[in-house]
Design goal:
This protein is α+β, with helices and mostly antiparallel strands. The protein has a single domain, classed as Pleckstrin-homology domain (PH domain)/Phosphotyrosine-binding domain (PTB) (PH-domain like), CATH 2.30.29.30. It is 45% helix and 19% strand. The chain contains 5 helices and 7 strands. The chain has a 4-stranded antiparallel β-sheet, covered by helices on one side. Strand 5 and strand 6 form a beta hairpin. Helix 1 packs antiparallel against helix 3, helix 1 packs parallel to helix 5 and helix 2 packs parallel to helix 5. The longest helix has 31 residues.
Length: 188
């Protein structure tokens, strides 16, 4: 059901840098103090094991945040770089001719997400955290003929800015906690 057959060059939309930076910073702020505190409190989990776990978690989080959306004349595709195993994050693709409608669904937190419904009844989550979301939705509307006037990103940028500010404050507290842990370790 292609509304506009005009050729468009392939466009790649990546996750918003603000979202990437915020989520990676929050992960670091929540996990980095753990090995230091483990050492000071003589916890049964050795700090080395925590460092390994934190490293694996950081790579996994970064893999999730490398999602990219490719739109072209044929359709839409959600992909990940080749280094991300397919069993971990599998992408999807949907030809424009198979898009039947865009269906809104409310989330458990009161937000609104949208799904592409295909001709065969399958649902594909509309990527809503990409940089250039307005342009992305314009392309979707041009290619499908579906009215996207009311489609908004799931979270507004100010929400991630607030989270980033509090994450930076948490990193300051982490610095204090790590310094205290190192000082305490030297005294004992």
């Amino acid at each position: 059901m292609t509304a506009n057959s005009a050729n468009i060059p392939p466009s790649i939309f990546r996750l918003s840098p603000l979202i990437r930076i915020t989520l990676l910073s929050l992960y670091i702020a929540l996990t980095i103090p753990l090995p230091f505190l483990s050492q000071v409190t003589a916890a049964p989990v050795p700090p080395e094991l925590l460092w390994i776990g934190i490293g694996i978690g950081l790579v996994a989080l970064y893999a999730v945040l490398t999602e990219q959306v490719i739109v072209d004349d044929q359709g839409i595709q959600v992909t990940y770089p080749a280094w991300v195993p397919r069993f971990f994050r599998k992408g999807w693709s949907l030809p424009w001719s198979q898009v039947k409608e865009l269906k809104p669904r409310s989330t458990g937190q009161g937000g609104l997400v949208y799904y592409f419904l295909s001709q065969d009844g399958k649902a594909y989550l509309l990527p809503m955290r990409v940089a250039g979301f307005a342009r992305f939705v314009q392309i979707v509307e041009a290619k499908t003929g579906i009215d996207t006037t009311d489609v908004r990103p799931l979270a507004q940028p100010w929400m991630y800015l607030i989270l980033l500010v509090f994450t930076l404050l948490l990193l300051l507290v982490d610095g204090w906690a790590i310094a205290t842990a190192l000082t305490t370790a030297q005294l004992t």
